[in-house]
Design brief:
The chain is flat. It is of the alpha+beta class. It has 7 helices and 2 strands, in the order αββαααααα. Strand 1 and strand 2 form a beta hairpin. About 15% of the residues are buried. Helix 4 runs antiparallel to helix 6.
Length: about 180
């Protein structure tokens, strides 16, 4: 493989930016705003070192395009600082944090099933006969089912959860920490 620096030059552009997001609370009508930050990185390549300025320009344009796309649907979890209500567009992001520990446990179930099955297939006593021992097939069949059950349970519990039913005072406090105050325009 030929090192990239012999074929040309790579220009990297990194940019971090923030926008103000205005919100009118669905529950109480209070207007507040918060700041959403995003970052992007891109690279431009100058073949044979012939177009350094063009590579920098392409990297800069690509970073701008990535930031614009990132800000199009930017939503942060900032409840209303007056009543503590999470707005509808924030709910999926709040719920994503619920029952997160079910996912790694399900992954372990899937991996363990594969390991047990392979161990049964390659075990010395059954390798020549072509049989798969029962001590291997039962866990190999039930562990993935347990993993699917965990993922389904997480999905159901998450959908049934209402972040706005959590203690109101804690949500108001979070809103006051994350929201910025401004007079009505």
């Amino acid at each position: 493989m030929i090192p990239l620096f012999l074929l040309g030059e790579v220009h990297t552009e990194y940019r971090q930016s923030a926008v103000e997001i205005d919100v009118e609370c669905e529950a109480c009508g209070h207007r507040y705003w918060y700041e959403a930050e995003r970052s992007a990185e891109s690279q431009g390549f100058s073949p044979l070192y012939l177009d350094g300025a063009g590579a920098r320009r392409r990297a800069r344009e690509d970073v701008e395009r990535k930031l614009k796309r990132a800000f199009q649907n930017a939503v942060e979890v900032v409840p209303c600082p007056e009543c503590g209500h999470y707005q509808a567009e924030m709910l999926p992001f709040v719920r994503k944090t619920y029952y997160w520990f079910f996912v790694p446990v399900a992954v372990v179930c899937f991996l363990a099933a594969g390991v047990v099955f392979v161990a049964g297939v390659v075990s010395d006593e059954h390798a020549l006969s072509g049989e798969i021992p029962a001590w291997s097939t039962v866990p190999a069949a039930t562990l993935p089912l347990l993993g699917l059950l965990l993922l389904g349970t997480r999905w159901g519990l998450t959908l049934a959860s209402d972040p706005n039913a959590e203690p109101r005072e804690a949500r108001i406090e979070l809103g006051k920490k994350r929201a910025n105050k401004r007079k009505h325009r």
